[in-house]
């Protein structure tokens, strides 16, 4: 397995978390813990999707 696949997945996880957390915290006015939980789900799901797509579909 190429380390580039893991790097893409980790980058996606961080990027989605950084995007979703402020939206949940400021726009939806969740408290800090609710914002963390709201951001973790989409971030992990996106990272898993990118990993699967790169590893099995694209063959990287």
Please give the alpha-carbon distance between the first and last residues: 8 Å
Q: Which of globular, elongated, flat, extended, rod-shaped describes the shape?
A: elongated
Number of E-state strands? 0
- The helix-and-strand class reads mainly alpha
Share in β-strands: under 5%
Low-confidence stretches: none
Biggest sheet: strands, sense, closure?
none
Mean pLDDT: 93
> How many alpha or pi helices?
2
Radius of gyration: 13 Å
Query: How are helices and strands ordered from N to C?
Result: HH
How helix-rich are the residues, as a percent range? over 70%
Describe, in plain words, how this protein is organized in 3D.
The protein has 60 residues and is mostly helical. Helix content is 85%, strand content 0%. It contains two helices and no strands. It starts with a helix and ends with a helix.
In a few lines, what is going on in this structure?
This protein is mainly alpha-helical and 60 residues long. It is built from two helices and no strands.
Task: Give the tags.
60 residues, mainly alpha, 2 helices
What layout of secondary structure does this protein have?
Layout: H1 3-27, H2 32-57
Helix pairs in contact: 1-2
């Amino acid at each position: 397995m190429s380390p580039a696949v893991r790097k893409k997945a980790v980058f996606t996880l961080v990027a989605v978390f950084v995007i979703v957390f402020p939206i949940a915290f400021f726009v939806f006015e969740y408290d800090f813990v609710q914002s963390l939980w709201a951001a973790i789900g989409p971030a992990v799901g996106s990272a898993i999707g990118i990993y699967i797509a790169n590893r099995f579909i694209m063959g990287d």
